[in-house]
Write a structure and sequence with these properties.
CATH architecture of the largest domain: 3-Layer(aba) Sandwich
Structural class: alpha/beta
Helix content: 25-40%
Shape: globular
GO molecular function: aldehyde dehydrogenase [NAD(P)+] activity
Number of domains: 2
Radius of gyration: 24 Å
InterPro entries: Ald_DH/histidinol_DH, Ald_DH_C, Ald_DH_CS_GLU, Ald_DH_N, Aldehyde_DH_dom
CATH superfamily of the largest domain: Aldehyde Dehydrogenase, Chain A, domain 1
Organism: Crucibulum laeve
CATH class of the largest domain: Alpha Beta
Keywords: Oxidoreductase
Strand order of the largest sheet: 16-17-18-15-14-19-20
Protein name: NAD-aldehyde dehydrogenase
């Protein structure tokens, strides 16, 4: 029996959202559990609906479906041209339903509908189309061994069944980042969306079926991370697990993968990204990018520029400009197109962020903006800026994942680089300078997988993204992501050498 819920969108429009597990192109109940996951609107704290929570046995069923599809209707059994056609069809359907998906994303995640539609979904459509273009261009090498008798060549085979675990901060965007390269090379997928934001992943599953993908190619299993995520990470018939989320959970996934079948792992983890403002920079533009770095997605961003360091000669002027920029951000109703920021995603995240704000106050940092709770319903955290920081403060050292900015000061370029690199993370970093030589020196010296020069937080689907240090391993986006979902096979072909035996 189909399991659905009715959700009311903008203007009173009602849509049907599937609430079952998506396995073999059908929405089904759990095989052994009555557990449910509640999807909550973080702006109102109201429950939107509940969805089936997958059990370990459900994960087994989904993995089995993915394996069967890999062996029969997908994997090496379908051409790159056909994979490309289906991925492009899926992109078309997401583009068709962009407004509906954006409103659903806003209700379940809190981000403004304009941001969800024009940025997250717009980028997701581009991501799918980018990898659709790669699907018929997966190539190996021909290698000279002995021209008279032998040659070797390589094949880039799909790695197999992939467990994909995505976070709640970009439910649709992270779905596309994981799904697109995996499908392009011929992998099958068991997708576990966050238990906080399962609705759009389930709605996207309808579009997977409508696009014409064979049953079992993409399966969606909402569940608690400690249940579904753990089951995928330790599953003996999962060939690769891809995870975006916290460093703590990333360690658990890597350990489980090692203890089970040594499956391939890619991890995009936390960050505490620095943003350096040098005296030669365009200060107005630098302030705009720094504001974006901490305000975008209400600071719930793994690359959030949560540590801004300013050269002493421009410090006072820049702080004033930055505060005015951040003040201009409208944090409110996500269904209003004037809104730039929404609530944080959940009560747990709300309490976490406010805990850090209080810690910053107690440790002696100076609040120059925000730091005061709103009354009423909703998980609202207005952008908060701290100055007078020290490197050992919790707000400086630990990832907050909210709109909380620490502002420091430096005198020299070497000091700026040292402050920036003084972290266990290495996901993103930014610098602003109109000195070209300085831009080259500093971008080279910063220990991060992505460095932005005179901009921040802008990603492109053809440019790789990933971390260093405790920000993860592996790369997403660009041609590099294809390597995460393929295994290289070397074929040695003897066409002329005769073996003398015995040796």
């Amino acid at each position: 029996m189909a399991q659905t819920a009715t959700i009311t969108l903008l203007g009173g429009k009602q849509i049907t959202v599937p609430t079952g597990l998506f396995i073999n192109n059908e929405f089904v109940p759990s095989v052994d559990s009555n557990e449910r996951i509640e999807a909550v609107n973080p702006a109102t704290e109201e429950v939107l609906c509940s969805v089936v929570a997958a059990s370990p046995k459900d994960i087994d069923v989904a993995v089995s479906a993915a394996r069967e599809a890999f062996k029969t209707t997908w994997g090496k059994n379908v051409t790159g041209f056909e994979r490309s056609r289906l991925i492009n069809k899926l992109a078309d359907l997401i583009e068709r339903d962009a407004q509906e998906l954006a409103e659903l994303e806003t209700l379940n995640n809190g981000k403004p509908v304009r941001i969800a539609r024009d940025f997250d979904i717009g980028d997701s459509v581009q991501c799918l189309r980018y990898y659709a273009g790669w699907a018929d261009k997966i190539i190996g090498q021909t290698l000279e061994v002995d021209n008279k008798s032998k040659l070797a060549f390589t094949r880039h085979d799909p790695i197999g069944v992939c467990g994909q675990i995505i976070p709640w901060n970009y439910p649709i965007n992270m779905w596309s980042w994981k799904v697109a390269p995996a499908l392009a090379v011929g992998c099958t997928i068991v997708m576990k969306p966050s238990e906080l934001t399962p609705l759009t992943a389930l709605k996207l599953s309808e579009l997977v079926k409508e696009a014409g993908f064979p049953p079992g190619v993409v399966n969606t299993v909402p569940s608690l991370g400690s249940v579904g995520g753990a089951a995928l990470a330790s599953h003996l018939d999962v060939d690769k697990v891809a995870f975006t989320g916290s460093t703590i959970t990333g360690r658990k996934i890597m350990e489980a993968a090692a203890k089970s079948n040594l499956k391939k792992v890619s991890l995009e983890l936390g960050g505490k990204s620095p943003h350096l403002i040098f005296e030669s920079a365009d200060l107005d533009q630098a302030a705009s990018w720094a504001a974006l770095g901490i305000c975008y997605n209400s600071g719930q961003d793994c690359t959030a520029g949560s540590r801004v360091y300013i050269q002493d000669t421009i410090y006072e002027k820049f702080v004033k400009t930055l505060v005015e920029k951040v003040k201009a951000q409208v944090t409110g109703d996500g269904l209003d197109d004037k809104t730039g920021g929404g609530p944080v995603v959940s009560k747990g995240q709300y309490d976490r962020v406010w805990g850090y704000i209080e810690a910053g106050k107690q440790e002696g940092a100076n609040v120059v903006l925000g730091g005061t709770k709103r009354s009423g319903k909703g998980y609202w955290v207005d952008p908060t800026i701290f100055t007078n920081i020290k490197q050992n403060m919790k707000i400086v050292k630990e990832e907050i994942f909210g709109p909380v900015l620490s502002v420091g000061i430096f005198k020299t370029e070497d000091e700026a680089v040292a402050l920036a690199n003084d972290t266990s993370y290495g996901l993103g970093a930014g610098l602003h300078s109109n000195d070209a030589n300085q831009c080259m020196r500093v971008s080279s010296a910063l220990e991060a997988g992505t460095v932005w020069v005179n901009q921040y937080n802008i990603l492109n689907n053809n440019v790789p993204f990933g971390g260093k240090k405790q920000s993860g391993i592996g790369r997403e986006l660009g041609s590099y992501a294809l390597e995460e979902y393929t295994s290289v096979k070397a074929v040695h072909w003897n066409f002329g050498e005769k073996l003398e035996w015995p040796l």
